[in-house]
Specification:
Residues 420-757 form the TonB-dependent receptor-like beta-barrel domain. The protein has 1002 residues and is mostly beta strands. Helices cover 9% and strands 48% of the residues. The protein starts with a helix and ends with a strand.
Length: 1002
């Protein structure tokens, strides 16, 4: 009996075990993220057991399980998901990002930091913020996206210089551009143009290779860059390969461009009417008509202006329809040891100005490999070649935009089709046909880096960076080109600037007792820059078919210079957080530069900052409305070393005296010359509401620049014209506000908004020579006024009795008040501060929406409280003072006693109202639709059936709408010929671009 019972029990256990194995099966599947990208390394655990596995490089997994058991999927930065095993053998999972786990990381120089614990003011832009914007310049892609950052392209030329001002202008005589750092390497950013108009050196970068742009605005953030951080720092990080299967991405777009604005000019009938009247007013009826009709005969050439007048639209000839083509491809991927990113890009832009084109090729390789748990090494290297077909600067008669000065009665071409050489001013079409100016820029940037971890909390980094900026310029003007008195003239130049950067630093990071978090970075950096320039000019070419200097019969000029500079720096930064809520930071940098006086070559720059995350306190931790609250305060010092390499040195140069060689002093020495120093205080608050559906940042700053670098005039008896000195104090103070909202968050519809607004008040505090005014053209430096304020006599309108232009005398009446009496003699009127060339307010608004497969975004950008002086107004809006064609508003000129108008009587050669005055100063406030994008992505099932990961088509527009009262071409355009801050002089408007494209990923 006992035997039988034992047998039955054994049989029963066997049956149970056999039944269990019969129910166990293999479950497989794929884990992806919200974009459909496979996730490798996801943990897949059979809940309640120790059984588990991980997904492979393609996101696939396989595990044995029994129906009714639960699988748990977890991955860092993503929400944990559980799924019960049912009858099916396949369970595919989509993991969602966990906002509570993810902390945005910003690049802070020699490392990164969580933005949540940041005590500085840093704006971060990602690749999504700057991609697919149809402009060759990456700076333009930033416009309107970051609070307190003003981005202005000088004019509508494809290579036009770009000004970026972070929290206003911090210098008078040194550069005002920020320091650009690409993957840890400070970039060469010198304008090397020789045709009188600046180029943008960062044209050589392609936006497709950029992962993020971090803008360090306050001194606490920028102090780690010491003597070069006074104007802020723009840190550009390029893309890296990510762990997982290899990915291929293609982006192609093509578009057309037109000017954002054109102006109305007199047609031939109106021109004849106005100038006949002007001549009669000046010389009398008979003499005036005889004189002006002789001028009309010359201007019209062989055409009959009396009966069948020519009506040339010179503006239409100056501008053209532009075209742009952008194409870029990239391959990226990696595994647990190696990551790679390869990319190539092509841009071809035909500008909106006749004769202006750009073509650029770029290629990049970023590779890193982990040789062991301790050692990582890699290489980033990029090459670009940019060729620009350039036009003359704004102050040259052969600049196409100056063609608007040509009277419409003058034919543009002769009967045989050649450009007309007998026009009032040089015909730019002759230059376009018989001359060229080509600039070629070749650039190599790279960094080799290695990282060794001694133990988890301590690592050592060594980086070697390289930047080569090599530019050649070739100019040829044939014998038929304007102003050419020889059989052709040629000019060729080349400039090569090399920068070597060696950085070595330790990073210590550890957590003590679960409440103390300490990060320390300390190291040194050495930067060596060499520049070599040479040029040659030749004349008398056998024919226009020979256009290189080797064919010139006579070499008339040549030049060569060799320059260089060195920086040696030691730096340290420490950040500390207590209980994840009390934040502290300190940094110091000791800089030495060869640019400064031998007694002042080293300087020390430091910063302190603190923050308090109040929302982590017990009394706010569970608040359902206020989800985040942080207070921050910082102080820091930075410097400005953006001057010539030998500004402090006493220099000598070779001269020729009676055809004998000699040397002579060319620059006075200042052994005490040193950096401008900028002290900045920043107070900020970061806010989050409704689980961070609404986030905001508010900052107030005071930024004082001391020891301003200025080229001070010397007495003539010194033998030198001027000397660089540290003189004067200037202050910027302002407030910045930024808010981000997630307006709608649904499965099939999301809508987010970013709005930023910033005010900057600029004031000159002190100047040399007991505060004496420094007047340069139409601008003035005066204590108590904004930098480079406009300084003009004040236009008072038109005398309704006789049509005279009137001006306010503005003479002190003895009690400190200025007289408001008027005079028709501009010499009796005093100049007064009349306006500011830099904006008081700047702002931007971006909206992004996703609905189904559609995505839609747009950005508005604006500036307020800024003035612009139309330097060409005394010629083009001068009530027929000279023969330049006039803007149509001059038709409302004064004609009869009692007329009320702002345009004086037309008087040929009468100088009636055509002096530099506030008549040509206007407000330049504007709001511009900077960018708009509409895209559609095919459904995942359709894309998968095509063997792709993504297929998206899109439309994008750039500078589509502009709202402004400025009557010139463009409220952003400024002269590129050194006419002074805030001056528009025949400056082309920006391009309005429409583009369509496609993104393909697989």
């Amino acid at each position: 009996m006992k035997l039988k019972l034992k047998f039955v029990l054994t049989l029963l256990v066997g049956l149970i075990v056999q039944f269990s194995y019969a129910q166990e099966k293999t479950v497989t599947g794929t884990v992806i993220d919200e974009q459909g990208i496979p996730l490798p390394g996801v943990n897949v655990i059979l809940q309640g057991t120790t059984t588990g596995t991980q997904t492979d490089f393609d996101g696939n997994y396989s595990i044995r399980a029994v129906e009714g058991q639960t699988l748990e999927f977890s991955y860092v930065g993503y929400q944990r998901i559980q799924r019960e095993v049912g009858p099916e053998d396949t369970i595919n999972i989509t993991l969602m990002e966990d906002a509570s786990q993810l902390e945005e990381v910003v690049v802070v120089g020699y490392g990164t930091q969580s933005k949540r614990k940041l005590t500085d003011n840093i704006s971060k832009l990602t690749s999504e913020d700057i991609s697919e914007i149809p402009t060759p310049s990456i700076q333009n892609a930033i416009s309107g996206k970051a609070a307190g950052v003003q981005v202005s392209q000088i004019n509508g030329k494809v290579e036009g210089g770009v000004n970026i001002r972070i929290r206003g202008v911090a210098s008078i005589g040194a550069g005002s551009e920020p320091l650009y750092v690409l993957d840890g390497v400070p970039l060469i950013n010198n304008n090397e143009s020789n045709n009188g108009a600046p180029t943008n050196p960062l044209l050589t970068l392609s936006s497709n290779e950029i992962e993020s742009i971090d803008i360090l605005k306050d001194a606490s953030a920028a102090a780690v860059y010491g003597s070069r951080g006074a104007n802020g720092v723009v840190i550009i990080t390029t893309k890296r390969g990510k762990q997982g299967k290899g990915r291929f991405a293609l982006n192609y777009s093509s578009g057309i461009s037109t000017p954002t604005n054109t102006r109305e000019w007199l047609n031939t009938e109106e021109y004849i009417e106005l100038f006949t009247e002007a001549a009669v007013n000046s010389f009398g009826e008979e003499d005036g008509r005889d004189y002006i009709e002789g001028i009309f005969d010359f201007l019209a050439g062989d055409t009959d202006w009396r009966n069948n007048p020519v009506n040339t639209d010179w503006q239409d000839l100056a501008f053209q329809t532009g075209y742009t083509t952008d194409a870029d491809v990239s391959v990226s991927g990696g595994d647990e040891k190696t990551s790679y990113f390869f990319s190539g890009a092509y841009n071809n832009t035909t500008g909106i100005i006749t004769g202006n084109e750009l073509e650029r090729f770029t290629a990049r390789t970023n590779v890193s490999h982990r040789f062991s748990d301790r050692f990582l090494a890699g290489l980033n290297i990029a090459y670009s070649r940019t060729e620009i077909d350039r036009i003359a600067n704004d102050n040259a008669f052969v600049n196409p935009v100056q063609a608007i000065a040509q009277p419409s009665m003058s034919p543009a071409y002769l009967d045989n089709g050649d450009p007309n050489p007998n026009t009032l001013y040089a015909n730019f079409l002759l230059y376009d046909k018989h001359a060229f100016y080509i600039t070629n820029i070749r650039r190599v940037t790279g960094k080799a880096f290695a990282e060794y971890s001694f133990f988890p909390s301590l690592k050592f980094n060594t980086d070697f960076g390289y930047d080569l900026y090599y530019q050649t310029e070739d100019n040829y003007e044939g014998r038929l080109a304007p102003f050419q008195s020889t059989n052709g003239q040629g000019y060729a130049s080349s400039v090569g600037t090399e920068s070597y950067v060696s950085s070595n630093y330790f990073t210590y990071s550890d957590i003590f007792g679960d409440i103390h978090n300490l990060d320390v970075v300390a190291g040194m950096e050495y930067n060596l820059t060499n520049r070599r320039f040479q040029s040659v000019t030749g004349i008398e070419f056998p024919t226009d078919d020979f256009q290189t200097i080797g064919s010139a019969a006579e070499i008339t000029a040549g030049n060569q210079t060799l320059t260089g500079n060195r920086f040696l720096s030691y730096f340290a930064r420490a950040t500390y957080s207590l209980m994840d809520r009390y934040l502290f930071k300190a940094s110091i940098r000791h800089d030495g530069s060869s640019r400064f006086g031998r007694n002042q070559q080293f300087g020390t720059f430091s910063s302190l900052a603190a923050g308090w995350i109040i929302s982590e306190e017990a009394f706010l931790r569970d608040n359902e409305t206020l989800s985040f609250l942080k207070l921050r305060a910082s102080w820091g010092q930075t410097g400005n070393a953006n001057i010539g390499d030998f500004a402090s040195r006493g220099l000598f140069g070779g001269i020729s005296y009676n055809q004998r060689p000699g040397i002579a002093p060319t620059q006075a020495e200042n052994s005490l010359l040193t950096w401008e120093s900028v002290d900045q205080m920043n107070f900020g608050v970061d806010l989050g509401f409704l689980n961070d559906r609404i986030t905001a940042e508010v900052d107030y700053y005071i930024k004082e620049s001391d020891g301003l670098l200025f080229n001070v005039p010397l007495p003539g008896t010194s033998g030198q014209p001027n000397i660089f000195r540290n003189v004067g104090v200037m202050e910027n103070r302002g407030i910045e506000f930024a808010i981000n909202t997630k307006n709608v968050v649904r499965d099939n519809f999301t809508w987010s908004t970013n709005f930023n607004l910033a005010q900057n008040e600029n004031e000159v505090i002190s100047l040399p020579n007991n505060g004496a005014d420094i007047i340069t053209g139409r601008n003035i430096l005066r204590e108590g006024e904004p930098i480079s304020a406009f300084y003009l006599i004040e236009y008072a309108g038109v005398d309704p009795q006789n049509g005279d232009a009137l001006y306010y005398t503005n003479v002190d009446d003895g009690s400190g008040n200025l007289s408001r009496e008027t005079t028709n003699n501009p010499n009796d009127a005093r100049r007064v501060v009349s306006g500011r060339p830099f904006p008081l307010w700047i702002g931007g608004l971006t909206n992004t929406m996703n609905f189904g497969g559609f995505d839609f975004s747009f950005t508005f950008q604006g500036e307020w409280g800024v003035d612009i002086y139309n330097g060409g107004g005394i010629y083009q809006s001068a009530n027929a003072d000279y023969f330049d064609n006039q803007s149509r508003d001059q038709l409302r000129r004064w004609q009869n006693p009692g007329d009320i108008t702002d345009v004086p009587q037309a008087r040929l050669f009468g100088a009636n109202g055509v002096v530099n005055s506030t008549r040509y100063l206007q407000e330049a406030d504007f709001i511009r639709l900077r960018n708009i994008t509409l895209g559609y992505s095919l459904p995942d099932q359709t894309v998968s059936s095509l063997g792709l990961e993504r297929f998206r088509v899109y439309f994008t527009g750039f500078n589509l709408l502009t709202f402004t009262d400025y009557e010139g071409y463009d409220p952003e355009a400024r002269s590129d010929a050194g006419s002074g801050p805030g001056v528009d002089f025949y400056s082309a408007p920006a391009a309005k671009t429409f583009s369509v494209g496609v993104n393909i990923n697989f």
